[in-house]
Design goal:
The protein is mostly beta strands. It has one helix and 21 strands. Helices cover 7% and strands 39% of the residues. Strands 1, 2, 4, 5, 9, 11 and 12 form a seven-stranded mixed sheet that branches. Strands 13, 14, 16, 17, 18 and 20 form a six-stranded antiparallel sheet that branches. Strands 3, 6, 7, 8 and 10 form a five-stranded antiparallel sheet that branches. It comes from Franconibacter pulveris.
């Protein structure tokens, strides 16, 4: 009896080991990365925003839904042919962190937060999406279902193109007020990454591959209202000058006292704004030396009288050309620029009698 039971026990034991080994290998999961079939897909979201002056304060937020410019692509994953897989998504940004959670520093005046809206079956999700907690898209993918994402499956079994990453919502947050036009150059906000798994276990972070980049470009404009001379024309009377006193070419008349006048300006309180404001002077007709041409000689229409201008605020004596000449405004946004002008003989020798006049425009520009 003992000799018969021995082989039976050995046979059953060996069979049990075989079944257990086979069952254990079926638990091993496979994962890998997914990319766009034509390389990392770039999405660019153009924006153009016009804000009210009262919006331009720390803490103001502007929410912008965008549709990126790019095009569709197919997911291409390194899973074995015939696999049935799930797709997971993550999103990372290389921008510096901003003032709060999920905000990134876009520039000196704006932070940005971003939500991606078109991960299949996931819904709007704020960036970043951690590699340690990726989002699983809806559905599974396989050649048997004619929606494969595995590169080695037959092309006619592949899934249709997608546009994941094209629909995002940006939230601009003012960290420092500004004036005028703020240009946002093309800036990458985040990179969308994806990976596959053949079961519901999420891939590890090192398995994810770059799939698409999402960038922003455009401008934000804040109106700025500046009043020059209370909205009236500045008229400067340079007096009566004997023609015989105009003798020196490119010089002022002999014994001529320059005429002084003030340019009053009021741009409101800009003490908390980092922009620089200047008054730009542009004459109607200007010669190569930046002098305002005030008269043409009748005999040959050659300019014979010009006007030269200086800024003398706080004891200065700076020549201000009439061709995009700049006068710096006080940081408070309100004040007065003290100016001095004198006529100039442009041709030399005695000039003919007669009036002269010139016109220039003052424009406040924001830098």
């Amino acid at each position: 009896m003992l000799s018969k039971k021995g082989p039976l026990l050995k046979t059953l034991f060996a069979f049990f080991i075989f079944i257990t080994a086979s069952y254990s290998t079926s638990l091993i999961a496979s994962t890998g990365g997914c990319a766009a079939d034509s390389g990392v897909k770039p999405w660019l979201s153009p924006i153009e925003r016009d804000w009210r002056k009262e919006d331009n304060m720390i803490g103001f937020e502007d929410v912008i839904d965008t549709s990126g410019v790019g095009g569709s692509y197919k997911l291409s994953c390194n899973c074995p042919a015939g696999s049935k897989v799930n797709i997971y998504y993550a999103a990372v940004s290389n921008l510096p962190t901003g003032h709060g959670n999920n905000y990134y520093k876009l520039n000196d005046s704006l932070d940005i937060a971003t939500t991606i809206n078109d991960i299949p079956g996931v819904g709007p999700t704020q960036i970043p999406i951690s590699l340690n907690a990726p989002k699983m898209g809806v559905g599974s993918f396989s050649a048997n279902d004619n929606n494969s994402v595995c590169t080695n499956d037959a092309p006619d079994k592949h899934a249709a193109p997608v546009t994941i990453g094209s629909s995002v919502t940006f939230k601009l947050y003012v960290t420092r007020p500004f004036l005028g036009e703020l240009i946002i150059p093309e800036t990458k906000i985040f990179t969308l990454q994806s990976a596959w798994s053949n079961n519901t276990a999420a891939p590890k972070g090192n398995m994810f591959a770059d799939t698409a980049t999402i960038s922003i470009q455009g401008k934000v404009t804040v109106p700025q209202s500046c009043e020059i001379n209370q909205g009236t024309t500045i008229q400067v009377n340079m007096g009566f000058i004997p023609a015989k006193n105009f003798t020196t070419k490119n010089g002022a008349p002999d014994d001529y006292p320059p005429v002084e006048f003030n340019i009053l300006y009021d741009c409101g309180d800009i003490t908390n704004i980092h922009n620089q404001l200047d008054m730009e002077i542009q004459g109607d007709e200007v010669n190569s030396n930046g002098l305002l041409i005030a008269r043409h000689r009748e005999s040959d229409n050659k300019p014979d009288v010009g006007i030269k201008m200086y800024e003398v605020t706080q004891g200065g004596n700076t020549v201000v050309p009439f061709n995009k000449g700049l006068i710096l405004l006080d940081k408070s946004g309100k004040g007065s620029a003290q100016m001095r002008v004198e006529p100039i003989n442009l041709i030399g020798g005695a000039l003919t009698s007669g009036p002269f006049h010139g016109t220039a425009t003052i424009t406040v520009i924001v830098r």
